[in-house]
Amino acid sequence: MTPAGGAPDGAPAIAALGGGHGLYATLSAARRFARHVTAVVTVADDGGSSGRLRSELGVIPPGDLRMALAALAADDPEIRGWTRTVQHRFGGVGALAGHSVGNLILAGLTEVLGDPVAALDEVAALLRIRGRVVPMSPIALDIEADVQGLEADPRVSRCIRGQVAVATTPGKVRRVRLLPASPPACPDAVAAITAADMVVLGPGSWFSSVIPHVLVPELLDSLTATSARKVLVLNLAPEPGETAGFSAERHLHVLSQHAPDFDVDFVLVDSATVPPGREREHLARAAGGFGAEVVYADVAARGTHTHDETKLGAVLEDLWGPAAGAGTRSADHDHVHSQVQERENASWQ
């Protein structure tokens, strides 16, 4: 494990949970102020290069893991070339077309070393990453969803299986499950959550990258028991397929349905996505079910539906606050709220 270079004394250790581009944004933000960042990554992808390698070689899907490694890679000139190479995707029409170099390296190292976590640690050392990348489970998982709106009777649900199918369904996802049910957690993921000062869940594909973490019993137990300060980061916009038509409040309701006892300290929302008024009142009530306070701030990259790593990092650092290592909400909470409120006010001017 390599601590983040230049992190000040008292900077937190962060465990960031998710997958894909959402986790990439969180990791890019967290590394700006944390002393150590562990990415806990979903392993249910069944599409593209990851799906092919998973099917042909029986490895856990490497794509989201590769992206997390790239997000945490050192920004040194001699490392940037390696990071670009790991992220490079082959073109053409042959057998390698569409595969990322990093996916192939991870698959090969897993076969050589016999352990996907050891393979990740090897690539992490190559990229001198700021922290560690681990899978949420040591085995590849499948996602199964109950989806309405695909039959003539809109009340009838159809079972859809596979992450890609769930993410692109034209129906309304009501509930998701992992297959196998109650899968094992990666011990390193559990240890990272237990040791963290701050845990960040989201943003990302809600049903396929965020909710799966609370469906792994050991992960949910560690998330419930940890003394870390927990932040849930909401998406900037509904996703076609998975969450089309979802309000911010609805995102919280479906997460609660899947993990009724899950609690967080803060729900972080981009201020432009939920205008002041009744929507914020409804969201505050939904967040209350998690024991959380809603924090509004400008965290979007201008003109996009993606999080700006500098803005997100600054707000997460504010939410960590000056009482580094406290691990729970404490007397600095009013100070934190004031800092973030000032940031939000500036975003509306």
UniProtKB/TrEMBL annotation:
It comes from the Bacteria. The keyword Cytoplasm applies. Residues 330-349 have a biased composition (Basic and acidic residues). Keywords: Cytoplasm. Coiled coil: none annotated. It is found in: Cytoplasm. InterPro entries: CofD, CofD-like_dom_sf, Gluconeogen_factor. This is Putative gluconeogenesis factor.
